[in-house]
């Protein structure tokens, strides 16, 4: 079972060694600026604590599959029969093909090219999207450490554009606990205007102001995230643990993938051989 | 247009357009192609012999559209051997048989870079000489993944006391052959066997293998195409050139070579160029020889 969130040390960076490419890597390439090029691998920095459930058929615990349903024809539609449409106004669509989408997608790239360095303090937290770590690969350890140290001391971060999958991301690379962290940032156009939600300006009395200041001061503490945990998640995990002890899990029926039957003798012989092969490998 | 008359075994043959660059990005001309097939002839001919040839012709080179030609061109020299083949109950069709060097040269001169043959001989069209497993990597998978699958298949067959042989497709995948060479075998047998094997592979290595044709299900996996075991289908002949960007050959590999390439994770190693093909064949002989002579029986069929 996965460890619950509170058991994990939240502030541990990945080990900074010239590791072989880890299977958990999302991307590998080089991070570069001026004459520096450091081979790195991108790995996850967080894992959300959401408990995920599978939808099952109540009758036999078969995991359910999603199918596309066409309400107008009242039938199941195969992936080959689907196209991609952009809703230009309600119920009016423009088709965009796979090729067209590809033609406007950025070319895959093996580099994170830092184009400028900024002061990290200038970055409003609303821009932060998703955190990752960069792990040095063989041959990159020395310059990696150097970059970590210098950025740490100056509290600077590198801004870069970076293509992952089909999207081009706007990212900040900064140092964190001896490692390089990469944050994808929101593009400024994604940040919603907030003028509408501001209350009307009214005069605030000095007395009220100082009273509130005092109450806040009384409640001041150091930022200590370990004190907080997702209690619902922990309760769910406890519940699952308890139920597993009380009651054996129900096994889902094996899904038959065959269209036509293969001769039973042949299948049995193949299965027997396969077991031996797997044992010897 | 350049023309050159050559004489092979007393038969006259006109070769044309020798300087035509058929692999433009590589500078590989018709003359190079003829030279390749001349030097590889002793190895490829046993595998072409007695089989109805499907030509895949690239008259304007590999960057332009090729076309398949099943019918043996009517302007053929009188000495080209043919067979009358009835495809799908239609009219019988005259197809070429490539049994000798002169016919091979004539075919190559038609810019038929790719030579495709069925698994059965023309005289016994319903008797496959081997079971074939066409290992085709989906998007996100590569030839090394195919090699992994091929090695598992080799071990599986060796448990069943069947020897198997592997060649590159000359494109992205691998072809694994289990020779049978028994006149009792039918395509129904080989297809049933291949399908059962593909499905058991999918069941045991779901991350690596799919037995399903659908593109979506092939992503990051190796598709074991069992449906090639059919009298209407053809396979690229071993030692044939492929009409890709470079003059790459469908070439047999020793199992050790496959193990090595997996160990080194080097997909490039599994692409054999024409020049390497000739020198390797001359040095090691025909690694695919057993495919056309070894007699084996499929279990439980």
Automatic annotation (TrEMBL), chain A:
GO terms for molecular function: double-stranded DNA binding. Residues 74-202 form the Ku domain. Residues 1-21, 243-262 are annotated as: Disordered. Residues 1-10 have a biased composition (Basic and acidic residues). InterPro entries: DNA_bd_Ku70/Ku80, Prok_Ku, SPOC-like_C_dom_sf. Transmembrane segments: none annotated. Pfam families: Ku. Residues 253-262 have a biased composition (Acidic residues). Keywords: DNA damage, DNA recombination, DNA repair, DNA-binding. SUPFAM superfamilies: SPOC domain-like. GO terms for biological process: DNA recombination; double-strand break repair via nonhomologous end joining. Belongs to the prokaryotic Ku family. Homodimer. Interacts with LigD. With LigD forms a non-homologous end joining (NHEJ) DNA repair enzyme, which repairs dsDNA breaks with reduced fidelity. Binds linear dsDNA with 5'- and 3'- overhangs but not closed circular dsDNA nor ssDNA. Recruits and stimulates the ligase activity of LigD. PANTHER family: NON-HOMOLOGOUS END JOINING PROTEIN KU (PTHR41251:SF1). NCBIfam families: Ku_bact. This is Non-homologous end joining protein Ku. It comes from Candidatus Abyssobacteria bacterium SURF_17. The gene is ku.
Automatic annotation (TrEMBL), chain B:
The keyword Phosphoprotein does not apply. It holds the Pfam family LigD_Prim-Pol. InterPro entries: LigD_pol_dom, MtLigD_Pol-like, NHEJ_LigD. NCBIfam families: ligD_pol. This is ATP-dependent DNA ligase. It comes from Candidatus Abyssobacteria bacterium SURF_17. GO terms for molecular function: ligase activity. Keywords: Ligase. PANTHER family: BIFUNCTIONAL NON-HOMOLOGOUS END JOINING PROTEIN LIGD (PTHR42705:SF2). Residues 29-286 form the DNA ligase D polymerase domain.
């Amino acid at each position: 079972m996965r460890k619950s969130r509170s058991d994990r040390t939240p502030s541990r960076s990945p080990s900074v060694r010239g590791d072989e490419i880890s299977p958990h890597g999302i991307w590998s390439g080089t991070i570069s600026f001026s004459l520096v090029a450091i081979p790195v691998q991108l790995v996850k920095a967080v894992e959300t604590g959401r408990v995920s459930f599978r939808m099952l058929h109540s009758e036999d615990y078969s995991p359910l599959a999603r199918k596309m349903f066409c309400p107008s024809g009242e039938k199941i539609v195969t992936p080959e029969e689907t196209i991609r449409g952009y809703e230009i106004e309600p119920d009016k669509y423009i088709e965009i093909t796979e090729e067209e989408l590809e033609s406007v997608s950025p070319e895959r790239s093996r580099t994170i090219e830092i184009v400028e360095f900024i002061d990290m303090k200038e970055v409003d937290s609303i821009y932060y999207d998703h955190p990752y770590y960069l792990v040095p690969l063989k041959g990159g350890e020395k310059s990696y450490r150097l970059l970590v140290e210098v950025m740490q001391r100056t509290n600077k971060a590198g801004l870069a554009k970076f293509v992952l999958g089909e999207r081009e991301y706007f990212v900040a690379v900064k140092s964190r606990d001896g490692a390089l962290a990469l944050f994808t940032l929101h593009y400024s156009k994604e940040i919603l205007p907030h003028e509408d939600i501001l209350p009307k300006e009214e005069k605030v009395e000095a007395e009220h102001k100082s009273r509130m200041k005092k109450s806040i001061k009384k409640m001041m503490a150091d930022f200590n995230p370990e004190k907080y945990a997702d209690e619902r998640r922990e309760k769910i995990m406890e519940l699952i643990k308890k139920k597993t002890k009380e009651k054996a899990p129900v096994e889902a029926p094996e899904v038959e993938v065959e269209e036509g039957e293969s001769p039973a003798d042949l299948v049995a012989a193949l299965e027997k051989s396969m077991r031996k092969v797997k044992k010897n490998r | 247009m350049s023309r050159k008359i050559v004489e092979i075994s007393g038969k006259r043959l006109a070769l044309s357009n020798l300087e035509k660059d058929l692999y433009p990005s590589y500078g590989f001309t018709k003359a190079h192609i003829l030279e390749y097939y001349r030097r590889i002839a002793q190895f490829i001919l046993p595998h072409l012999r007695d089989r109805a040839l499907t030509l895949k012709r690239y008259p304007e080179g590999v960057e332009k559209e090729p076309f398949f030609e099943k019918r043996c061109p009517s302007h053929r020299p009188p000495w080209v051997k043919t067979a009358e083949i009835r495809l799908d109950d239609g009219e019988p069709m005259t197809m070429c048989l490539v049994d000798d060097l002169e016919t091979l040269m004539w075919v190559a001169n038609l810019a038929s870079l790719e030579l495709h043959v069925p698994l059965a001989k023309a005289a016994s069209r319903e008797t496959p000489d081997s079971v074939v497993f066409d290992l085709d990597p989906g998007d996100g998978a590569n030839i090394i993944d195919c090699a992994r699958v091929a090695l598992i298949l080799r071990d599986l067959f060796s448990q069943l006391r069947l020897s198997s042989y592997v060649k590159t497709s000359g494109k992205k995948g691998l072809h694994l052959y289990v020779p049978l060479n028994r006149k009792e075998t039918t395509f129904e047998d080989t297809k049933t066997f291949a399908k059962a094997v593909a499905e058991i592979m999918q069941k045991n290595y779901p991350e690596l293998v799919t037995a399903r044709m659908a593109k979506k299900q092939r992503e990051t996996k190796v598709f074991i195409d069992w449906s090639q075991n059919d009298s209407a289908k053809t396979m690229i002949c071993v030692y044939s050139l492929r009409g890709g960007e470079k003059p790459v050959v469908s070439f047999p590999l020793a199992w050790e070579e496959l193990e090595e390439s997996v160990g080194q994770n080097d997909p490039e190693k599994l692409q054999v160029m024409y020049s390497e093909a000739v020198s390797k064949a001359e040095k090691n002989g025909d690694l695919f020889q057993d495919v056309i002579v070894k007699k084996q029986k499929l279990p439980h069929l």
